[in-house]
Specification:
Radius of gyration of chain A: 21 Å
Largest interface: A-B, 46 and 37 residues
Shape of chain A: globular
Oligomer: heterodimer
Number of helices of chain B: 9
Strand content of chain A: under 5%
Structural class of chain B: mainly alpha
Strand order of the largest sheet of chain A: 1-2
Strand content of chain B: under 5%
Number of strands of chain A: 2
Number of strands of chain B: 0
Largest sheet of chain B: none
Chain lengths: ~475, ~210
């Protein structure tokens, strides 16, 4: 509830700069609360409140931690990102207040998704987060941003409607299990009913749910809104979109996965669907990354790829699910950093066109180096943790003797690796047409970029016990782990 | 009562075909308003409802929203923009009607294939719901103007509402949540009105794809 109140306050704030600072402070405070709650869950097991309507277990605690990381980083970064725009009046106090309100609104909506036990309330959260974030895209009402917003709203609202149909079908399936009334849609009750649910209806419902939430999660071929929205939104918002909004939608699919498995008697039917969508997303994203000419769109397609990897890992199950959840954390740390750097470089160069971004390491040392390092981490260069999680997904696939899936996965990763490396080389070393002086930067900004990258590096070498514990417990909920 | 229910359902199908076949946006808004009112009357016509007063209140809310509020908003947005008719839809009106017939046939076929636990006295409810959902999606994809896309979304939503009525009569909460989808409609209309989105967005146009650089 805290974010909602904070959102109300920030609508009232007068000065743009205070509004942004307030955003950061409020997000940090919420993060502290959420972190505390997540640790409580790890110590004492799943917690329920509000008559069983809110529930926090290992899976949601894991997602909650990732979400708060993304939001904290983005809120801190927003202070620096909007500074120039505040100074020259492009971001008026009223706009900043609205930005703050929407910011906390979407934070609250995504929290509702993670905390709610009822499939219905989860759906409400997804719907609310769609509405809130739609307006965050067009803080600056340019024609491009408006079109991106319209496309996003239209595609995601149809997706949300499809997901609702899926929930109706699941609700219809509860009749056979003897569940009635409003409690029938509580996830815990559904899990208990398990194999008594009507399998045909649950299957039909799951298809609708995957298509519906998959639209929002950016699984190919339902990803069309994603590159537009990511490239048109301001950088902190893109970071939230990519770092967590997609994961919040994927989370809803993952929540339903064990239900389907229980209802179909563990035949792996639901997992196969996820494997298919995962591989398809990786390959489609790889194809688009090869011919990409805009840095933010490139990052957006990279998100499609990474969501695909997570879906693939969860679809493989067992060790794959652990790897997918680990990958989620890595991606949520790394992708915001890449978007921050790309956003600042875009401000400095006045363009996101890859052909015109040259010698970025010399002209903007912090942002250029940050962008290149985070891109390297994203494509899975060895010491970074994304390499580790991708390798674990691959290993899980081979262990389950899914050789075709493993081969396609490697093909996709290889194509992305080569394509991104080519872009990196031109960005870093192609000579400038008109040499210009390096941009100054502050120590705080450098810290904001390099501390998370350092964490990525550390995670790639050594995974702490507590994190492993969280991952294992969360993967157990997804099932398939002995 | 069953005759009343069937009459309402047939009206829904007819409004659906009218929407598929008409080009004037003003007429489209009126037809969709009629469709909204009919959808709102459906729960009252279902005879096996245990929570009659509750369902009536919900029905009145739906009628008020879809029959009065949305048409008003849409008309004011229509006045703001200078479009009055759909000039060149992606798929022509005759072809659209043909698709409508296909959807209806497909919906009846699907109904026989799926084994749904339907709590309704009319066997028409589920097929009508399916065909409304398909037609709504079709309108969103096949029309260019933002206004018609909103109307398509309304049709889709009416379909889902009917489907919900058929499948989960024991859970009024879900129907209530379905009404929340109307918020999207309100936001769409606001978008049209505030940001003057009256130019055409070519979602699936091949020309656009090259402009967006992959």
């Amino acid at each position: 509830m805290a974010p909602l109140m904070l959102g109300g306050i920030s609508l009232l704030l007068r000065s743009a700069r205070t509004a942004l600072r307030f955003c950061a402070a409020g997000t940090l405070a919420t993060a502290a609360l959420a972190g505390f709650a997540a640790l409580e869950v790890l110590r004492n097991g799943p917690a329920e409140s509000a008559g069983g309507w809110l529930m926090l277990d290992a899976l949601s605690a894991h997602h909650l931690l990732a979400m708060m990381t993304v939001f904290c980083l983005s809120a801190l970064f927003a202070i620096g990102y909007f500074r120039d725009e505040v100074l020259d009046g492009r971001l008026t106090p009223k706009m900043a207040g609205r930005y703050g309100g929407l910011w906390f609104g979407s934070l609250a909506a995504m929290m509702l998704v993670l905390l709610s036990n009822s499939l219905g309330m989860m759906w409400v959260g997804v719907e609310a987060s769609t509405l809130m974030t739609a307006f965050l895209i067009c803080i600056h009402a340019s024609p491009g941003a408006l079109e991106a917003m319209w496309k996003y709203l239209l595609m995601c609202s149809v997706g949300v409607a499809a997901a609702f149909t899926g929930i109706l079908l699941v609700a219809a399936a509860t009749g056979a299990a003897g569940l009635h009334g409003v409690d029938a849609l509580l996830w815990t009750n559904l899990m208990e009913a398990g194999s008594r649910l009507n399998p045909g209806l649950v299957k039909a419902g799951f298809i609708f749910i995957v298509i519906g939430y998959g639209t929002k999660a950016g699984l190919a071929p339902l990803h069309n809104w994603l590159p537009d929205a990511h490239s048109q939104a301001p950088a902190p918002v893109s970071a939230v979109f990519s770092g967590f909004l997609l994961n919040a939608a994927l989370y809803c699919i993952l929540r339903c996965l064990p239900l389907v498995e229980a209802a179909t008697g563990g035949t792996g039917w639901g997992r196969d669907i996820l494997v298919f969508f995962g591989l398809f997303s990786i390959l489609v994203a790889a194809a688009f990354i090869v011919m990409q000419r805009d840095i933010k769109r490139l990052l957006a397609y990279s998100s499609v790829e990474h969501i695909g990897i997570m879906a693939l890992g969860a679809g493989i199950g067992g060790a794959g699910a652990v790897a997918a959840l680990f990958h989620l954390i890595n991606h949520s740390i790394c992708k915001p950093i890449a978007f921050f750097c790309a956003g600042r470089i875009g401000q400095i160069y006045g363009t996101h066109d890859l052909a015109r971004l040259t010698m970025i390491m010399r002209r903007a040392p912090v942002w250029g180096a940050g962008l290149i390092v985070s891109l390297l981490a994203l494509v899975g260069v060895a010491p970074f943790s994304i390499f580790l999680s991708e390798f674990l997904v691959l290993k899980a696939a081979v262990d389950r003797s899914m050789y075709v899936a493993a081969g396609l996965f490697l093909l996709g990763l290889g194509v992305v690796f080569i394509a991104v490396l080519r872009h990196i080389i031109t960005m870093a070393w192609r000579p400038e047409e008109q040499p210009s002086a390096p941009i100054k930067f502050s120590a705080a900004e450098a810290l904001l970029i390099f501390i998370p990258l350092g964490v990525m590096l550390a995670l790639g070498v050594w995974v702490p016990e507590t994190l492993l514990d969280i991952l294992n417990r969360a993967a157990q909920i997804l099932g398939g782990l002995s | 009562m069953s005759i009343l229910l069937d009459t309402l359902l047939v009206t829904l199908i007819i409004t659906c075909f009218l929407l598929l076949g008409s080009s004037r946006l003003g007429a489209c808004i009126r037809i969709s308003a009629l469709q909204g009112v009919v959808t709102g009357m459906l729960p009252m016509a279902l005879e096996d409802c245990s929570l009659l007063s509750y369902v009536t209140a919900l029905g009145i809310a739906v009628i008020g929203l879809k029959g009065y509020v949305f048409p008003r908003l849409l008309f004011s947005a229509l006045r703001e923009s200078d479009t009055s008719r759909e000039v060149q839809p992606f798929i022509g009106y005759m072809a659209s009607l043909f698709f409508g017939i296909l959807f209806l046939l497909g919906a009846f076929w699907l109904d026989t294939r799926l084994d749904l636990p339907v709590h309704s006295s009319s066997s028409l409810l589920v097929p009508v719901a399916f065909s409304l959902m398909c037609s709504g999606l079709f309108l969103i994809v096949a029309r260019r103007t933002a206004m018609n896309q909103v109307i398509g979304y309304l049709v889709l939503e009416n379909g889902i509402y009917c489907f919900g009525l058929a499948v989960v009569s024991g859970m009024p909460l879900l129907l209530e949540l379905g009404v929340l989808m109307d918020i999207f409609v309100a936001v769409f209309v606001m978008g049209i009105a505030i940001y003057h989105i009256n130019r055409e967005f070519d979602h699936i146009d091949a020309d656009r794809l090259s402009a967006l650089k992959g």
